[in-house]
Amino acid sequence: MNVLQLQSINPSIKALAVIILVLCLSFVFDPVTPFILWIFILTVTFIFGRVNLKRWLLFFLPFFILAFGYIWTTAVFFHPPAEIKPVSLITLRTVVITDYGLYTGLALGLRVLCFSCLSLLFIMTTDPIKFILSLVQQCKMPPKLAYGILAGYHFLPLLNDELKIIRHAHKVRGVNRMQGVRGKLAAKIKCMIPLLASAIRKAERAAIAMESKGFTGSRNRTFFHKMTVCHHDWIFLCIMVGLFFVSLFISVLLGTFRGIGVI
């Protein structure tokens, strides 16, 4: 096991690190701290995460558009408190962008980028099966709930294949020949009923199979895949939290830090 790979970190500890950073960022309202932390997160993701850049950019693009929307709308429509005298930076007819509005917009937008990059770091470096097992073994999640979620996760590709089969069968039999919005809605309803019936049958078979193998939902059971928390997991947690405080310290030195209570 390579301790320098994010894939080797215990998923529960990785999730805990993400939650702590999100909570810490929620109390910061300046653009410098999240910007520096965002650079740190990108560095950790691509150096230690073995993440495909093209796939990462595909998932990151919607969050980037959302962050840009936050920056733009806040810079244009945000009204500062009465005791603050903003400086106009750009004036386009009735649109006035002030330094305070731009500062606030950048703070919100960069926080969105940090939240999205933390989420992508977790999603793209975590095996869902290992995450569920870690929740059961380390976080004491009820096995019935955990394995139900895991079964549903495995059923999603099967339901997609089942939906394709139903649509092909309807096409062969000439069922979906209505045009317009009403016809498309009727076609979807006709697909939903057999798809729901198929899902119920698959869920019943999975339940019977688990009961026949002795699954009772008890916590007192052995695991084929044993998830453990090692010292490098705690080191990862300390490093991620430490990166936030380093970003905060740099922002304080630059004199740009502003807490959420000071708006």
From TrEMBL:
Compartment(s) of residence: Membrane
GO biological process: cobalt ion transport
Residues making up the signal peptide according to the UniProt record: none
Main localization of the protein described in the UniProt heading: membrane
Cell membrane recorded as keyword: no
Transmembrane segment boundaries: 12-29, 60-80, 100-123, 234-257
Protein name: Thiamine permease
InterPro entries (alphabetical): ABC/ECF_trnsptr_transmembrane (IPR003339), Cobalt_transport_CbiQ (IPR052770)
PANTHER family: COBALT TRANSPORT PROTEIN CBIQ
Top-level lineage group: Bacteria
Membrane topology annotation: Multi-pass membrane protein
Organism whose genome encodes this protein: Lederbergia citrisecunda
Single GO cellular component term: ATP-binding cassette (ABC) transporter complex
Keywords from the named record: Membrane, Transmembrane, Transmembrane helix
